[in-house]
């Protein structure tokens, strides 16, 4: 492999990035890209924001904005997040650019002319009020499987089932709320079924594909592939380049893949280099596991139909949960990249999300575990070894690498460096990024033990030659760590090498000894421990974010029968410290209410007070006592909401 074409799944431009995106896709891809560059290979690392599809269109329509305005807003946020995490793209583009439109339309036309795309009438939901067909995300209703309300036309959040709009019970248009009707609409389909055997052979014979990708893809192919609808009735998107297809756009999964190509072509136009040379050598896609189907089945089939070389490998990162629960952006149970970077360095995020578990396994982000790893592994092991090595060199050797006569224990450390470098290379080549990072921390552990065993603070006086050999060897180990860390923690790597005065060190320099007499710079602490109070604050902020305001409609509010009532009698309920039994006059009737206001009011002070009563709540029993209404009071202090004016029984609107 001389050249490698690396891509990341296109982030969808309807929200910023969170830690799950970084863990599954962008950090692993960047580690691989940086490693290949430092190894001397030519790398083309591209990505783009995916800016079409119904979620952006729906969001724009609800906010009375142009879809491009929404996409542009999030493009800037996403780009800022990825740059802040040092994701080293050679080009980061957008699928809303004219270049991408041309490439996608030409791709569609070629497949159409080769008869891999055909026309077919299908039944679709049509909104008479909006006067248009409704794509899947424009429809909501009840899930036909679990009965949950608010299921979308493509997915039910409650049970996780994939849905079609026509399956929804009591569907309604998300924009105007009216009930749609069923009409026929002509669409374009891709003959995915024709590639059943070719895809099966490609997946089975591709020795590069990881087990999680191969097994998932095989399951779908072996069940039998159906042709894919390749168009939508929408305005926002890439128009189908056929005269008879007015009002139809190419389905986002029919053109978003080509964002890899259009971004590469854009790079070629900027640099004058040929992107095809990279694609023709080695292509590696980094994605999240939720889009394995699309990248391991649909995309290869499109490329087969067009006549292109297929990807060499697809690396799918598994899910990241948060504090033991599934991440949810809708419920705000999520850590946004920008929020995290307000307090912590990007390198420790890259470290934690890599070291936590192999990429092919689900893992969890825990604030306490994050603190433990930073404090124990980065501060106490890695940072401690480097700082004591540099400080000792500064103090006792005038910041210069000492002359040394190495003995067996010193040579063993030098040999360990060479072995670790080989193991790290092997791990990264196999996309086992965690294993490579564990090796680097292992070197620091050996360094600390070696430093302790050699006791240079003692031998500097009793056996200067032994102390010099120890510090010489520790600096070689520090250099190796600085070089080998570059793909994982580029900023810390640069700081280590700057202290060593070796900013231009290459990958192979990891095993090349620093010569005696080489001068290093003054040592500075590389890692700070994270205090308990900081973690407690982050946990508090996370839980606070989920306490979002829930809204009801005007129609829902109108169902509440709120009235002015007068308390006639009040008495304590035996066995309860807080509950009082109230008799309340509503003019047309008297009701009994059990209210939890006993910690604030005594029974004797309540008769005669005018209060606000919810009068049409379903009767229930509290402490065995019937309650036919609800008295309105503040939630924490239990202060009654009272009125000075207002007739008894008067409705509140």
UniProtKB/TrEMBL annotation:
Zn(2+) binds at residues 143, 146, 156, 159. Keywords: Aminoacyl-tRNA synthetase, ATP-binding, Cytoplasm, Ligase, Metal-binding, Nucleotide-binding, Protein biosynthesis, RNA-binding, tRNA-binding, Zinc. Its EC number is 6.1.1.10. It is found in: Cytoplasm. The keyword Ligase applies. GO terms for molecular function: ligase activity. It is an enzyme of class 6 (ligase). Homodimer. This is Methionine--tRNA ligase. It comes from Methanothermobacter tenebrarum. The lineage of its organism: Archaea, Methanobacteriati, Methanobacteriota, Methanomada group, Methanobacteria.
């Amino acid at each position: 492999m001389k050249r490698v074409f690396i891509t990341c799944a296109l982030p969808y431009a309807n929200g910023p990035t969170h830690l799950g995106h970084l863990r599954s896709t962008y950090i692993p891809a960047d580690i691989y890209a940086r490693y290949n560059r430092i190894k001397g290979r030519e790398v083309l690392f591209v990505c783009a924001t995916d800016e079409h599809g119904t979620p952006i269109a729906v969001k724009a329509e609800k906010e009375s904005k142009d879809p491009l305005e929404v996409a542009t807003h999030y493009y800037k946020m996403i780009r800022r997040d990825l740059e802040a995490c040092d994701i080293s793209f050679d080009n980061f583009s957008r699928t809303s650019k004219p270049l991408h439109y041309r490439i996608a339309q030409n791709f569609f036309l070629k497949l159409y002319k080769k008869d891999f795309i055909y026309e077919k009438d299908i039944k679709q939901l049509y909104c008479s009020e909006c006067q248009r067909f409704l794509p899947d995300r424009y429809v909501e209703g009840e899930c036909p499987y679990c009965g949950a309300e608010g299921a979308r036309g493509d997915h039910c959040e409650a049970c996780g089932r994939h849905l079609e709009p026509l399956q929804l019970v009591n569907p309604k248009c998300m924009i105007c709320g009216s009930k749609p009707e069923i009409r026929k609409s002509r669409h374009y389909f891709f003959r995915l079924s024709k590639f059943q055997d070719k895809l099966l052979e490609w997946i089975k014979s591709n020795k590069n594909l990881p087990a999680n990708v191969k097994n998932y893809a095989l399951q779908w192919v072996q069940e039998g592939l159906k042709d894919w609808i390749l168009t939508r009735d929408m305005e926002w998107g890439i128009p189908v380049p056929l005269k008879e297809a007015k009002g139809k756009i190419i389905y986002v999964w029919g053109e978003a893949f080509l964002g890899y190509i259009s971004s590469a072509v854009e790079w070629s136009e900027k640099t004058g280099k040929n992107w095809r040379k990279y694609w023709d050598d080695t292509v590696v896609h980094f994605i999240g596991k939720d889009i394995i189907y699309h990248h391991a089945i649909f995309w290869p089939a499109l490329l087969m139909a067009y006549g292109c070389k297929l990807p060499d490998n697809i690396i799918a990162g598994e899910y990241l949960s948060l504090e033991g629960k599934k991440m949810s952006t809708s419920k705000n149970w999520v850590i946004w990249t920008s929020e995290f970077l307000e307090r912590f360095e990007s390198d420790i995020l890259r470290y934690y999300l890599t070291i936590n578990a192999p990429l092919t396994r689900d893992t969890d982000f825990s604030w306490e575990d994050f603190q433990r790893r930073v404090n124990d592994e980065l501060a106490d092991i890695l940072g401690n070894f480097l700082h004591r090595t540099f400080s000792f060199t500064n103090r006792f050797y005038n910041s210069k690498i000492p002359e040394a006569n190495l003995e067996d224990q010193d040579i063993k450390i030098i040999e360990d460096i060479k072995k670790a470098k080989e193991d790290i290379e092997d791990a990264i080549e196999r996309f086992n990024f965690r294993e490579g990072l564990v090796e680097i921390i292992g070197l620091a552990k050996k360094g600390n033990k070696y430093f302790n065993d050699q006791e240079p603070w003692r031998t500097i006086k009793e056996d200067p030659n032994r102390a010099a050999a120890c510090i010489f060897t520790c600096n070689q180990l520090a250099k190796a760590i600085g070089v080998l860390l570059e793909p994982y923690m580029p900023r810390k790597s640069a700081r280590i090498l700057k202290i060593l005065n070796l900013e231009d060190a290459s990958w192979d320099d990891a095993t090349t000894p620093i010569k005696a007499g080489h001068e290093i710079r003054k040592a500075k602490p590389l890692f700070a421990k994270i205090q308990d109070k900081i973690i407690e604050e982050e946990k508090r902020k996370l839980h606070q974010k989920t306490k979002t305001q829930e809204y009801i409609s005007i129609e829902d509010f109108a169902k509440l029968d709120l009235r002015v009532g007068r308390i006639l009698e009040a008495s304590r309920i035996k066995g309860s410290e807080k509950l009082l039994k109230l008799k309340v006059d509503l003019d047309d009737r008297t009701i009994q209410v059990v209210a939890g206001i006993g910690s604030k009011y005594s029974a004797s002070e309540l008769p005669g007070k005018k209060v606000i009563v919810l009068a049409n709540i379903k009767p229930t029993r509290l402490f065995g006592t019937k309650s036919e209404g609800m008295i309105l009071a503040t939630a924490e202090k239990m202060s009654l909401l009272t009125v000075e004016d207002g007739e008894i029984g008067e409705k509140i609107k």
